[in-house]
Design brief:
The chain has 2 domains: 15-87, Diphtheria Toxin Repressor, domain 2, CATH 1.10.60.30; 97-169, Diphtheria Toxin Repressor, domain 2, CATH 1.10.60.30. Helix content is 74%, strand content 0%. It has helices at residues 16-35, 38-43, 48-59, 63-78, 83-116, 118-127, 133-149, 154-169. Helix 1 packs across helix 3 (48-59) and helix 3 (48-59) runs antiparallel to helix 4 (63-78). The protein starts with 15 loop residues before the first helix and ends in a 9-residue tail after the last helix. The model has no long low-confidence stretch (mean pLDDT 86).
Length: 178
């Protein structure tokens, strides 16, 4: 059987469709890398030539030339293990989800405090010992006055910032609507 001698047995055969899917995945990865801010791109573990290709892709404005440069960047990515890059991007997504969650918790507490007043401050005090009760009550009163008078919500923003800082130190509990 001479035909079997031509095929190495130690390497698994990869279909053309699978190779194409992998190539498209790397091209999407290259496109995602070009969308990152310079600070985030600096945190991604990349080879110097890949980093240079990504930076060069950002500077290209012509659609066709940009597409060609993305192909080149994807080709460079095929030469390295992309797994650490995918992990770094997942960490960025996790950070974004945490920030979004912090924003939503802070907004929910601000709205609850403005709606329920001292009762809500008391509920927060029961769950968090680090609450500056007097300052929080003052911010709530000022925010309500601003709202009634149709003024810009400076105190409501200050209340939100205070709640967000509290959440950064220790996650705020869920708002109880009882």
């Amino acid at each position: 059987m001479k035909g079997k001698e031509n095929f190495p047995t130690d390497e698994p055969l990869v279909s053309k469709s699978q190779r194409r899917r992998e190539a498209l995945e790397l091209k999407a990865l290259a496109s995602e890398l070009t969308k990152l801010s310079p600070a985030r791109l600096g945190r991604v573990p990349l080879d110097d030539d890949v980093r240079a290709a990504v930076v060069e892709t950002r500077q290209i404005r012509s659609h066709v030339a940009r597409k060609r440069q993305l192909q080149y960047t994807a080709k460079l990515l095929r030469r390295i293990d992309p797994e650490p890059i995918f992990q770094a991007l997942e960490e960025f997504d996790g950070e974004a989800r945490q920030l979004t969650g912090r924003q939503h918790r802070s907004e929910a507490w601000r709205d609850y405090l403005l709606e329920r007043g001292d009762f809500a401050v008391g509920a927060l005090m029961k769950q968090r010992a680090d609450v500056d009760t007097q300052a929080l009550r003052q911010l709530v009163r000022n925010a309500k006055k601003e709202s009634e008078r149709g003024k810009p919500p400076a105190a409501a923003r200050a209340l939100f910032r205070t709640l967000r800082e509290m959440d950064e130190q220790e996650q705020l509990p869920p708002v109880s609507n009882s």
